Amino acid sequence: MIFIDQFPEKAPLDALNYLVGECNYGGRVTDDKDRRLMEVVLRTYFHEGTVLDDDYKFSPSGTYYAPKHCEYEGYLEYIKGLPQFAAPEVYGFHENAAITKNQNETNSALGTMLATLSSAGGGGGGTDDALINKLADSILAEVPGQFDVVAAEKKYPISYEQSMNTVFTQELARFNVLIKTIRSSCVDLKRAIKGEVLLSPALGDALQSLTDGAVPAMWIAKSYPSLKTLGGYQRDLLERL
């Protein structure tokens, strides 16, 4: 309470919130937006209802609250009754935040399963190399070379009356970056399999992704957003090109 008296412009609970949010955790949380968020979250707990209202809840669902005074076993029973997997409301998020979390967990689980299946053969390295070579050749044969942006700018010059010309040439430039990434990675993978170049971490990731039938991360980094598998992404890319 001595510390609270040092903040006469703040209400006691606000001052306590400030002490915990700024002074106790302030040295660990350096971003000002994060500290502001922490103070907002703490207001739920440093609230007069916590002490005065037996029905005060910490979350909209009412699952989380300060149990009434009881024996030690009563507190343990309350803790055991809490959900094993906390809902987004615990962190102040809307329940829709669980959708993204579940999607990420599902993608991670499926990716792990694919990686396990692809590596379960054991001792079949030669077959895998032949498969990647064949796949790389197929991609190189289907994905065309880069667009001639200079020729496109001459044929469709930028003008006030034709704004689509500007969009068109910008899209060509964006797809050129993606085309270059895809084709160069396939060429480098073929050379790495032959032992002509080192297999860098990025190439190793691309090799594993192609083996699993997934789109390599280096492609996605230069690509339009897509959640398709490798085959679906290839067809979609060719249609866009």
Helix and strand layout, with pairings?
Blueprint: H1 12-24, H2 32-42, H3 48-52, H4 72-80, H5 97-118, H6 125-142, H7 149-155, H8 163-194, H9 201-212, H10 217-220, H11 230-240
Q: How many angstroms does the end-to-end distance come to?
A: 68 Å
Number of strands: 0
DSSP strand content: under 5%
Bulk shape = elongated
Structural class estimated from helices and strands: mainly alpha
Provide the domain count: 2
- Unreliable parts: 1-9, 120-126
The biggest sheet amounts to: none
Helical proportion? 55-70%
Mean pLDDT: 82
Number of helices: 11
**Rg on CA atoms, Å:** 29 Å
Order of helices and strands: HHHHHHHHHHH
How would you describe what is shown here?
- The chain has 241 residues and is an all-alpha fold.
- It has two domains: 4-86, no CATH class; 122-240, no CATH class.
- Helices cover 60% and strands 0% of the residues.
- It has eleven helices and no strands.
- The chain has helices spanning 12-24, 32-42, 48-52, 72-80, 97-118, 125-142, 149-155, 163-194, 201-212, 217-220, 230-240.
- Helix 1 packs across helix 2 (32-42) and helix 6 (125-142) packs antiparallel against helix 8.
- Residues 1-9 and 120-126 have low confidence and may be disordered.
Concise overview:
Helix 1 packs across helix 2 (32-42) and helix 6 (125-142) packs antiparallel against helix 8 (163-194). The chain is mainly α and 241 residues long. The N and C termini lie far apart (68 Å).
